[in-house]
Amino acid sequence: MLQNNKGYLAITELYAFTIYIFLLLFILPSLLTIHQEQIRFEEKRMVMHLLHSELQKVIWDATLDFPTSYSMNYKQTPMHFTFEEETNVIRGCVEWTSKREKQSKECFYAKAYK
Predict the structure, then answer these.
(1) Fold of 6-111
(2) Which end of the chain is more exposed for a tag (fewer CB within 10 A), N or C?
């Protein structure tokens, strides 16, 4: 039958090496990018949750004058909140520097109950 199978062994090793290189060059960088984006989305979700909580406090505080702004730190991330009253609507915005050193801003709107 197959008396000389040394070439067959070299070809299978070449295939295995090709698969290994494919994983290193394509799959691992993609997984790293996905992980970094998950961290970025988690940070943005956390900031938006804080903005929602602060906006709820502002909506129900009858003694507050507009416009109002203040800063706070959360998990070593400085954030600046601003709240302005427009026609029957309160606009709450938060500005922060993301972990990628990018300035970000998000705004929510809520009905004013005054």
Answers:
(1) Pantoate--beta-alanine Ligase; Chain: A,domain 2 (3.30.1300)
(2) N
